[in-house]
């Protein structure tokens, strides 16, 4: 009679060393990208700024009689504030991350959607720049 011998299952030493080596390489390349969130937060602030400029411009163009729409960049209070007059002064605030700083500036928009002056806003850390043209167009430099 034959005795039943179970087949052994497992990993060879070569397979184990290969997997450990791949995991080591991935940890060196990938983990630092997730550990530092400043680049992500800077990019988010850049997108928020461009969105706020477009929203302020649209508000100015949609006002029936006159437009007194301003976008204020207030890094001290970590916010972007849009103010406009409609039955009193109205405000729309957007919060930016605590460790992100933007160049403090105020941009006014006319009824035609034009900005009162061109402005370049610097976003730190990482030194990203957003340019607002006199036409009201906002873009990344």
How would you characterize this protein structure?
With 141 residues, this protein is an alpha+beta fold. The protein has one domain (39-140): minor pseudopilin epsh domain (minor pseudopilin epsh fold, 3-Layer(bab) Sandwich). Helix content is 34%, strand content 29%. It is built from 2 helices and 8 strands. The strands form 2 sheets. The protein has a 4-stranded antiparallel β-sheet with strand order 3-2-1-5, covered by helices on one side. Strand 7 and strand 8 form a beta hairpin. The chain is elongated, with a radius of gyration of 27 Å. The termini are far apart.
Keywords:
minor pseudopilin epsh fold, 4-stranded antiparallel beta sheet
Number of strands: 8
- Major sheet strand order: 3-2-1-5
Cα-to-Cα separation, first versus last residue: 82 Å
Briefly note the CATH topology name.
minor pseudopilin epsh fold
Shape: elongated
CATH class: Alpha Beta
The major sheet is characterized as: 4 strands, antiparallel
Residues in helix, %: 25-40%
Q: Work out the count of structural domains.
A: 1
- Compute the number of helices: 2
Q: Using the 3D structure, state the CATH architecture.
A: 3-Layer(bab) Sandwich
Strand content: 25-35%
What gyration radius follows from the Cα positions, in whole Å?
27 Å
**Order of SSEs, N→C?**
HHEEEEEEEE
Mean pLDDT: 81
> Structural class, judged by helices and strands?
alpha+beta
Summarize the structure.
By secondary structure, the chain is an alpha+beta fold. The protein has a single domain (39-140), classed as minor pseudopilin epsh domain (minor pseudopilin epsh fold, 3-Layer(bab) Sandwich), CATH 3.55.40.10.
């Amino acid at each position: 009679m034959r005795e039943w011998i179970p087949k052994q299952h497992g990993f060879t030493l070569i397979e184990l060393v290969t997997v450990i080596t791949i995991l080591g390489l991935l940890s060196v390349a990938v983990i630092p990208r997730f550990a530092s969130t400043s680049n992500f937060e800077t990019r988010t602030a850049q997108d928020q700024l461009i969105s706020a400029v477009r929203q302020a411009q649209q508000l100015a163009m949609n006002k029936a009689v006159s437009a007194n729409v301003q976008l204020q960049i207030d890094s001290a209070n970590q916010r972007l504030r849009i103010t406009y007059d409609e039955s009193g002064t109205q405000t729309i605030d957007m919060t930016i991350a605590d460790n992100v700083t933007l160049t403090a500036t105020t941009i006014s928009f006319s009824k035609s959607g034009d900005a009162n002056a061109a402005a370049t806003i610097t976003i730190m850390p990482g030194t990203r720049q957003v340019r607002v043209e006199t036409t009201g167009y906002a873009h990344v430099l």
